[in-house]
Design brief:
This protein is an all-alpha fold. It contains nine helices and no strands. Helix 2 runs parallel beside helix 5 and helix 6 packs across helix 7. It binds zinc ion (ZN) (2 copies).
């Protein structure tokens, strides 16, 4: 979806607030043991986000209307401010948090939700950087940019992960990589 500069950047204001809310609400009444387990739930949420990012990009953004059409616009105009608006993504993460509280104790649910939100925020910033920031040659961001540029090549059907290439390797959608990438553990 085409957006103004402000709404394109709204993720970076709204998601830190949601993260702070998930953190403080979930830890407020946590026992000592729940507090100790909390970081593990955050990590589980983060790891889950990387899989969700891959699946949503590959199966929803590339196949399901109307997301397919909106995402195709981003592929055609990679330098324009096109993305998922915060008014759509933020309520979905709040809904995920509420759903998790039905299945898990409040601290665990809040930790997992904070991990999911942190993962999404990192993805959002990284995808923005992949298109709009310069990267030092040979650095990590340069590799992210190269991988994502391969995804944007016309007719490409791979490299769906932005935050990590892990799931592309698991599902066999990592495209041929150069020696540079391989050596760097892409
Ligand atoms: Zn895509
Ligand atoms: Zn892109």
């Amino acid at each position: 979806m085409r957006m103004s500069r402000w709404s394109y950047r709204a993720d970076r204001a709204v998601f830190p607030m949601l993260l702070a809310a998930a953190g403080s609400v979930s830890l407020w009444h946590a026992s000592m043991r729940q507090s100790e387990e909390w970081p593990a739930w955050v990590l589980a949420g983060l790891a889950t986000w990387t899989l969700l990012e891959y699946l949503l990009h590959r199966w929803v953004l590339h196949r399901v209307p109307p997301f397919k059409r909106l995402h195709a616009e981003h592929h055609e105009h990679p330098f324009e401010l096109i993305g998922t608006p915060t008014w759509l993504s933020a309520p979905l993460f709040v809904l995920a948090w509420l759903t998790l509280t039905q299945a898990l104790a409040r601290p665990a649910a809040g930790g997992a939700a904070a991990g999911l939100m942190a993962g999404y925020l990192a993805y959002s910033l990284l995808h923005d950087a992949a298109h709009h920031r310069r990267a030092a040659p040979g650095g990590w961001l340069a590799r992210v940019k190269r991988r994502h540029a391969r995804h944007h090549q016309p007719g490409a059907n791979g490299d769906f992960g932005v935050s990590t290439a892990f799931w592309d390797r698991v599902f066999g959608t990592a495209t041929t990589v150069g020696r540079d990438d391989r050596r760097a553990g892409r």
